[in-house]
Design goal:
Distance between the termini: 86 Å
Order of helices and strands: HHHEEHHHEEEHHEHHEEHEEHHHEE
Radius of gyration: 47 Å
Helix content: 55-70%
Structural class: alpha+beta
CATH architecture of the largest domain: 2-Layer Sandwich
CATH class of the largest domain: Alpha Beta
Largest sheet: 5 strands, antiparallel
Number of strands: 12
Shape: elongated
Low-confidence stretches: 1-6
Strand content: 15-25%
CATH topology of the largest domain: Heat Shock Protein 90
């Protein structure tokens, strides 16, 4: 292997040999004949030219090696760590090439490990449903996951920008400021106003520099708890409503039972007490039955295809009309059936008949006496079936329509209790429609009646 010193030694030795050969040539030539000045100058010039050429060649080889080393270092600096320097064959130059190649290999391995680690971290972040944002101590966005895009609208190109430049969420920005000022975790419920307002549980965890121990940023985890809070509120309202609905008949039963314990009651008073107790126990029984039915529907999966039956829509309405003929006759009301020709629907017959029966009974009870109720079924575009119960009653104002299908919600509480309603009938209708993959809705104008609809997918 030839090194730098050997290059210089061999080039110097070669020049000395040339000088000796040139001197010997001049001595031999002078012994043969007298040399002219021109001949001596020619020999000396040739000797100098060869010496310079040899020196330039040696320096050129070293220069080329340095140029290749510099080019390789520049490529490494640009991140092209897979390129390598070809050894030139000279020992010192080979050592430099090997050193640079080994450095590039180690850097390439380290960069690969860092990329793998970064991908693993990003995969973990993306697998979390909550939004995750990392900011530095000046609130510049360092990283975020996909959930932060859906919850807050953050984009990948927002990284590096200040959080306050991207978002207009005062409660979130205040939380981040407070979190950066603390040494421990911060947990707080906040509200963001994007997408109509969302309830968010925010947790802030400080980023600590492992070497200095200084806080250099904050990791923020934002969990959308809007649905959970709504369910908690519904559960509280439900418990309150159930207690209220049961309290009234139970109080009545207790009061009349205490009356019957008194001595000296005549038969008419006893009979009246027994009738009141019976009506209220029946009301309690109906509330419990509806609650159980509603609970079963809420926890059931979508309709089981094996439980679906084909039923003629007109025949179903005709049966329902016959079942409630006495109530219709009592209130002098007529029922008209309007069904598309040969319309057969595939449903869980018991549930759909229960839903339609609830709507039909409500129409018979709440619509004005002597009016007409229309039971209708039609095919709609996009493979949908519409079942309708239309009345000519007083109508329902818009503020009530929004909440009409909620549990225990009543437009007229006093009248509903008077006619024996539990306040759960329309909630059951809604969940039966949802169970079939459909929906229930109402349209109404005050003074012009109401139309209750059940929309079902055509199977």
């Amino acid at each position: 292997m030839i090194n730098n010193r050997s290059i210089h030694w061999w080039s110097s030795a070669f020049i000395v040999i040339l000088q000796i050969l040139a001197g010997s040539f001049l001595l031999w030539k002078s012994s043969q004949q007298e040399l002219t000045t021109t001949e001596i100058l020619v020999v000396i010039s040739a000797l100098l030219a060869l010496s310079v050429a040899i020196a330039l060649f040696a320096n050129r080889m070293q220069w080329n090696m340095m140029v290749r080393a510099v080019d390789a270092a520049r490529r490494f600096g640009r991140g092209d760590l897979r390129d390598r320097i070809q050894p030139p064959g000279f020992a010192d130059h080979n050592k430099l090439a090997d050193a640079l190649n080994r450095m590039a290999g180690r850097l390439d391995d380290r960069m690969h490990d860092m990329r793998t680690h970064q991908l693993e971290q990003q995969a973990i972040m993306e697998s979390i449903a909550a939004a995750i944002i990392a900011v530095d101590h000046e609130q510049h966005i360092l990283n975020s996951n996909e959930a932060s895009s859906s919850i807050l609208g953050l984009l990948p190109e927002d990284r590096g920008r200040k959080l306050g430049e991207v978002l207009r969420e005062p409660e979130l920005l205040g939380f981040v400021t407070d979190g950066l000022a603390r040494e421990d975790d911060l947990n707080r419920d906040i509200r963001i106003y994007r997408r109509g307002g969302r309830e968010i549980n925010a947790i802030g965890h400080p980023i600590i520099d492992s070497e200095s121990g200084d806080r250099v940023g904050l990791v923020i985890l934002l969990d959308d708890v809007t649905r959970i809070r709504k369910l908690e509120s519904m559960r509280t309202d439900f418990a309150s409503n159930v207690s209220h609905e049961l309290k009234t008949p139970i109080t009545s039963v207790r009061g009349y039972a205490e009356t019957m314990l008194e001595e000296g009651l005549d038969e008419d008073t006893k009979r009246n007490c027994i009738q009141v107790i019976y009506r209220n126990t029946e009301r309690i029984s109906n509330i419990i039955a509806d609650l159980l039915e509603l609970s079963k529907l809420e926890h059931a999966a979508e309709v089981d295809p094996e439980r679906l039956e084909h039923v003629d829509a007109e025949a179903m309405f005709t049966r329902m009309k016959s079942l409630h003929e006495d109530l219709a006759s009592t209130r002098n009301m007529k029922t008209r059936i309007d069904v598309d020709q040969d319309l057969v629907i595939q449903v869980e017959v018991r549930l759909i008949e229960q839903a339609l029966s609830n709507l039909y009974q409500n129409a018979l009870r709440y619509a004005s006496e002597g009016t007409t109720i229309t039971l209708a079924a039609h095919r709609l575009p996009h493979r949908q079936i519409e079942l309708q119960v239309k009345d000519e009653g007083p109508g329902i104002s818009p503020e009530h329509q929004k909440r009409l299908f909620e549990r225990f919600y009543r437009v007229d509480r006093a009248r509903s209790r008077e006619i024996g309603g539990t306040g759960l009938g329309l909630a059951i209708v809604k969940h039966i429609a949802l169970h079939h993959g459909g929906e229930a809705n109402v349209s109404s104008d005050v003074g012009n009646g109401s139309v209750f609809r059940i929309l079902l997918p055509e199977r």
